[in-house]
Amino acid sequence: MSVEWLMAAVRDLDDAQVDLLCEMADAFGRKADTWEHPDSDLVTDGFGSSMVNRLQLHHATSEEKFNKTSFEFAFKAASRFANRRAEKTVAHTFQGADVVVDGVRWSLKTEGAANMSQDLITISKFSEARWIRDCVTQEDFAREAPARIERHLSEYDRVLTLRGFYVQNHEAVRYDLVEIPHAMLMAATQLTERDFSPRTGAGSSRAQVFYEGKPAFTVSLDGSVEKVTLRNIQVSQCMTHAQWTVPVLPLDD
């Protein structure tokens, strides 16, 4: 596509469509602050540019932060813009992977809670876990959790989360693109009976995971909602590929 193609296409749009196109152009005209890690193997070949443009386009019409579904499609499109072969997965093909890029299976997450920490990541639904109801002792948790976590992690190769923070009095959103080391998550497969806390009245337990001799994150087994949550993942032990601060267009302009 080209500018000439766009100009020709505009002639066939109605007034409402032209108005929306003007909002999009206004969004692209507002500067987004960008930082990309010089050692990143991800935000290269135009990938970062495509992602930030899609974030700007999103905030041309919405104050809400990017959600997981939007991130998946934007990640696929940005990968293709960078001349990589990218496809969204079919749910029954890979239970944990969302997009496959050049044969690499990516699990994509988003995080945008109002009170979330700048330094600690939470994966609120790492996996469903109906099996928690059958665990009574710490030995039960140690028998089930590491094996099931390993099985889940075997479904993908890399883990990426897009974290959104309102900044500048809610006039912009800063997005941090953070990769959580797969090897660090695999450390949870080495948990033993003594690592798990006793079962609570709600049927829950938790365990602290260490990686390279440092506290890395907490595995939380929530019996009330039957899911595994990973809490307190240290951003300092992850790779921040990029940060993009994108203006949110005022809805009353």
Summarize the structure.
The chain has 253 residues and is an alpha+beta fold.
Would you write up a description of this structure?
With 253 residues, the protein is an alpha+beta fold. The model has no long low-confidence stretch (mean pLDDT 91). It has helices spanning 3-10, 15-29, 47-59, 68-81, 138-153, 182-186, and strands at 33-36, 86-88, 99-101, 104-111, 120-128, 158-167, 172-180, 205-211, 214-222, 227-234, 239-247. Helix 3 (47-59) packs antiparallel against helix 4 (68-81). The chain contains six helices and eleven strands. The longest helix has 16 residues, at 138-153. Strands 1-11-7-6-4-3-2 form a seven-stranded mixed β-sheet. A four-stranded antiparallel β-sheet has the order 5-10-9-8, covered by helices on one side. The chain is elongated. It folds into two domains: 1-30, no CATH class; 33-247, 3-Layer(aba) Sandwich (ECO RV Endonuclease, Chain A). This is Restriction endonuclease. Pfam families: SmaI (PF17411). InterPro entries: SmaI. It comes from Amycolatopsis alba DSM 44262. GO terms for molecular function: type II site-specific deoxyribonuclease activity.
